[in-house]
Amino acid sequence: MPGESTPDIKAKIHENLKSYVTVFHEIELNPGEQYTLQPDTLHWFQAGDEGAVISEFSTTNTDEIDKFTDSRIKR
């Protein structure tokens, strides 16, 4: 998410994706933890080695107003 880049970030960013990832402030969540983002906050998720189940609840949104920094995403 936006903010000061996390030193020694744990996320693994594939070389082909580095030009699309624009935020590097890492927040690590453990089982049962949650984090609330304000609307219009750029973010991305990555599971750990054992995978993850992510539930995302958001304010009203539509495909037409979703914002992506990855130009390969087409809606």
Description:
With 75 residues, the chain is low in regular secondary structure. The protein has one domain (1-75). It contains no helices and no strands.
Strand-helix topology:
Elements: no helix or strand
In short:
The chain is low in regular secondary structure. It contains no helices and no strands.
* Overall pLDDT score: 81
Q: How many individual helices?
A: 0
Backbone structural class: little secondary structure
Q: How many domains would you count in the coordinates? A: 1
List segments where confidence is low: pLDDT < 50 over at least 5 consecutive residues: none
% residues in beta strands: under 5%
Count of β-strands: 0
- Taking all Cα atoms into account, the compactness measure Rg is 13 Å
Separation of the first and last Cα atoms: 22 Å
Q: Quick one: biggest sheet?
A: none
Coarse shape: globular
Helix share bin: under 10%
List keywords for this structure.
single chain, 75 residues, little secondary structure, globular
